[in-house]
Amino acid sequence: MAEEQGDTGMPGIPPSFIPSASRQRPSSSGVDAAPPSFIPPSRKRAAKPAAVTPAPASPTGPAQQMPQSFQPASKPARRATGSSRSAASQRTASPATPPRTVPNTPMNARAAEPAAAYGATMAVAAQPPRRRRHIGRIIVSILLVLILAAALGLFGVWNWVDGKLIKTPWLTDRADTPASTWLVLGSDEREGGDSDIVGFRTDTILVLTKPRKGSSSLISIPRDSLVSIDDYYLKINAVSQLYDGQSLVSEVEQITGQKIDHVAQIKFNGLKDVVNALGGIELCYDSDVSDPYSGLEWQAGCHMADGDTALAFSRMRYADATGDFGRGDRQRQVIGAIMDKGLSSGTLSNPGTVMSVADTTLNAITVDEQTNPYTLLMMALAFRDATGTSGITGSVYWSNPDYYVDGVGSSVLLDDQRNLELFTALADGTHEPGVVGTLAESQ
Fold it and tell me: I need a labelling partner for 8 at 20 to 30 A (CA). Which of 52, 128, 164, 235 fits?
């Protein structure tokens, strides 16, 4: 047995790894001595380099040997080229100076390199989306500012228009009908008055209808149409003067069979001012006219008319072979021309003209108690549609244009049944575009 163990007295260990017996110290804790690879170099005589690189000494305790697969990915320790003392000093970490690297743990060792690569990749990839989001936020902010400015502008315009409206009770309690219906009146009330005019009369009576589907229509009711209130006969243009506005609206509702939703009455002088604010309107008439009653001087054809000419054009009837019926046709032409130019791109693109026309119009009209800026806009658009190529214009039907009544004089006797049928079709949107009424049929 002694021969098999050799001179070292330690079984199975090569002599080159056994230190001198005189320098081997037993462990004070009773634990076997540390492996030869952990003996400081200063105590090794001719020790070969260890197969496993020792971990640096921990400031808080003795170094523990770690499997090689868990070693951090760092530079390998340099092999000492000087004396054993310098090598020992290079391996000894000062407890007062903590290591600058991340603690040498398995998790940090595994995550350090992938995390760094992942973070760098994300930093590069995240830059373009941040720029896009930044640009998107700028665009959204600009849009919000524009929308807010437009809303504030519309709110200001709404309040300005609504504040200038002169409202009068006109509407009745008749049940609603499906179409939107406006009553447009032209008043003979004039500022300063004329010696031959007492009070005012509604010489222009137009019914504007906009169905849910179909063509809009603008139909005249002759000023001399015969009506009856409390068994008393009178012409329709005197109803508002002798009774009130609601009585006039009620008579129109009986003629048409439709609920009047809104009313707008314009003074004749107001019409003149509106035309001048627009810079004139184009009017057409196929006959030469020299009428001392209305003051109209006209050569056959189409001409640009100023406010005075447009007003005379609307009033003239004695020089017209069709009398009051022809006057109604010209009145529709004047109002249609005003609406067409007022809603044209040339007018709407000029803020000064828009404000002038709006101010002049609002000073010239009186509306019902439920009218607001929106209903006025809808009325203007319906006017434009009705007087366009796809609209319906004309007058009501009558059975006798010269019906005489004592105390009233010559009147227009209306055809009640045909008128109810006409306005039912107009309100339903089933009537074809074109010109309607007895006057249209007689031409």
Answer: 52
Question: Which pLDDT score, from 0 to 100, does residue 33 have?
Answer: 46
**Sequence-distant (≥ 6) Cβ neighbours of residue 233 within 8 angstroms:** 226, 227, 405, 407, 408, 411
- Residue 236 near residue 221 (C-beta atoms within 8 A): yes
Going by C-alpha positions, the residue among 239, 234, 223, 245 that lies closest to residue 396 is 223
The crossing angle, in degrees rounded to 10, of helices 373-386 and 106-164 is: 70
Residue 303: helix, strand or coil by DSSP?
strand
Q: What is the pLDDT of residue 31?
A: 43
- Sequence-distant (≥ 6) Cβ neighbours of residue 442 within 8 angstroms: none
Q: Is the pTM of this model over 0.70?
A: no
Residue 159 has pLDDT above 60, yes or no: yes
CA distance 313 to 305: 9
**Do 289 and 207 touch, CB atoms closer than 8 A?**
no
109-129 residue pLDDT tens: 444 555 555 555 555 454 555
| pLDDT above 90: residue 368 | yes
Residue pair 398/222 in contact (Cβ under 8 Å)? The answer is yes
> Is residue 251 a contact partner of residue 227, using CB atoms and an 8 Å limit?
yes
Quick count: other Cβ atoms within 10 Å of Cβ 38?
Answer: 13
Q: How far apart are CA 221 and CA 204, in angstroms?
A: 8
* Rounded distance between C-alpha atoms, residue 31 and residue 37, angstroms: 17
DSSP string, 333-366: HHHHHHHHHHTSHHHHT-HHHHHHHHHHHHHHEE
DSSP reduced 3-state for 413: strand
Which of 313, 300, 302, 237 lies closest to 272 in space, CA to CA?
313
Residues 6+ apart with CB under 8 A from 178: 211, 212, 427, 428
For residue 167, the model assigns a pLDDT of 93
H or E element at residue 417: helix 416-428
pLDDT tens, residue by residue, 226-259:
999 988 999 999 998 899 999 999 999 999 999 9
Which pLDDT score, from 0 to 100, does residue 88 have? 44
